[in-house]
Amino acid sequence: MDNNFNQMNDQINVNGQMNNNNAGVSSILTEDIKSFNLTRTLIGAAAALVATILATVLWVFITGITGTLMYVLGLAVGFVGIFIYEKITKKVDIFGIIICLVFVLIAIYFGVRYGYIYYLAKEEDMTIKQAKTLFEYAYDVFSEVKSEYVGLMIKSYIFSFGYTVIVFLQKFNVIKKK
Q1: CB 122 within 8 A of CB 63
Q2: CB of 61 within 8 A of CB of 69?
């Protein structure tokens, strides 16, 4: 009984507010809800959206130049979105993580798809529109193209979630920030 009382006291600081060092998930979510600022969140989300779009365009450009769809760059897209959100809002809350995750999911889809199409256009010396038509035809007809494309998409999503998982684990005090 005494041990439970001390644990509860450790979670409450001098001002009577919860201390996140030992607090549970529900108290962290409650704190995020209480400190929610719509204006700051919208500005951070807009900045994260612009950052993920720019990172995706760069990813497509790098794919077209190198001829290799580097799914590791999915990690960079995930990092950029959350990093910019955190710098603009001065905090990482659950709302920001979810917003950035949605942006990253969409960015990865377009990054892999148009990276593949851009590379195909460069390789076959055709326009982007012609390469898109060829890609869609090959995707529908050839199972090898479909399996390669789906594999690249899955790998990109896995790498992009890397940074998001780290942020989540830090948010819920599973791992410590340095």
Answers
A1: no
A2: no
Collapsing DSSP states into helix, strand and coil, what is residue 13?
Answer: coil
3-state secondary structure of 149: helix
Closest of 125, 114, 138, 132 to residue 61, by C-alpha: 114
Over the chain, what HEC string results?
Answer: CHHHHHHHHHHECCCCCECCCCCCHHHHHHHHHHCCCHHHHHHHHHHHHHHHHHHHHHHHHHHHHHCCCCCCHHHHHHHHHHHHHHHHHCCCCHHHHHHHHHHHHHHHHHHHHHHHHHHHHHHHCCCHHHHHHHHHHHHHHCHHHHHHHHHHHHHHHHHHHHHHHHHHHHHCCCCCCC
Tally the residues of the chain.
178
pLDDT digits (tens, 9 = 90+) for 54-107: 998 998 888 877 877 677 777 788 888 888 988 898 887 778 888 888 998 898
The reported pTM is 0.69
Please write the tens of the pLDDT for every residue from 2-19.
444 444 444 444 444 444
The rounded radius of gyration (Å) of the Cα atoms in the chain is: 21
